[in-house]
Amino acid sequence: MDKRTKICLKLFVSLVILCLLFFSVDINTCLKTLAHINISLFTLLVLIYLAGQVISALKWKIIAERLGFRNSLFNFIKYYFKGMFYNSFLPTNVGGDIMKIAYLKKNCSGDDCIEKALVSVLADRISGVFVLVVLAFTGVLAVHNLNNSIKFFVCLAFLLFMLSVFLIFIFRRKQFKHDIINKIIGYNNLFFDKNIFKILSLSLVFHIFVIIIHVLTGMALHFYINPLYYLILYPVSAIAASLPLSFNGIGIKEASYMYLLAQVAILPSQALVFVLCWNLVILISSLIGAVFFIEKTD
């Protein structure tokens, strides 16, 4: 199956899911719910998210420096926001990552520059997903009366990640016949020091910022739910949306939020407004990346 056909199929999946979701809600209720969000609050949400992206850029800088890349924090911030712009406005979930790899490669002269740049982006992604899974698992432990399917999904993801970490730790000092396996282990060893705590801590701070955005949005929309439930709502929806089943996760993301919020007695119309507000925060923040295209990247 060629790339164009895959994009068309993903777009079709997104459109079908979105149509089903919109037909399941009451537009008048959506508009009434949306009226609770004021401009001042929305501006605050965007600023919090922008601060989180700067923290993410700092995390990426630490990872890249372990791989031998040297650049200013400001340039890493520019690359990060450009990547956000690509991911938000192009028909691909990895377009932004490819662009970040290209930008990082410009400041490297070795034969393995692309490989190391790819590793830096993957390590950035994996550290973020790891923290998401841990947050979701914490939420499962803290929130009672959860749907069993949600518990199963979160616990399975947590166990798989813990198993992966255990295997990496066990085999990190071993040598294998396959050069690719030895290379992967070698890259993993780069982060088995104090830097791993910095990386995971910065990732945790970013995700806490996002959860704060979710809590504030829920409060503005008068969602009377346990604040700890957002530890499940955001990570599970984010992981579901990252699956390569739809166009940039559109449709699956909205369906995930609506399903999870329905578990705590939030109406579909209210849930849809919630996720649309979250999407709008991301899109507005991503536009910063367009500003950086005006000037030439160093």
Characteristic key phrases:
mainly alpha; 12 helices; 298 residues
What does this entry look like structurally?
The mean pLDDT is 82. By secondary structure, the chain is mainly α. It has helices spanning 3-23, 27-34, 39-66, 73-89, 95-105, 113-142, 148-171, 179-190, 194-220, 230-242, 252-262, 268-292. The two termini are 37 Å apart. 76% of the residues lie in helices and 0% in strands. The longest helix has 30 residues, at 113-142. It is built from twelve helices and no strands.
List the helices and strands and how they pair.
Elements: H1 3-23, H2 27-34, H3 39-66, H4 73-89, H5 95-105, H6 113-142, H7 148-171, H8 179-190, H9 194-220, H10 230-242, H11 252-262, H12 268-292
Helix pairs in contact: 2-12, 3-4, 3-6, 3-9, 3-12, 4-5, 4-12, 5-6, 6-7, 6-9, 6-10, 10-11, 11-12
What is the end-to-end distance? Answer: 37 Å
Identify the overall geometry.
globular
N-to-C SSE string, H for helix and E for strand: HHHHHHHHHHHH
What's the number of extended β-strand segments?
0
What average pLDDT do the residues reach?
A: 82
| Overall radius of gyration | 20 Å
Give the gist of this structure.
Helix content is 76%, strand content 0%. The protein is mostly helical.
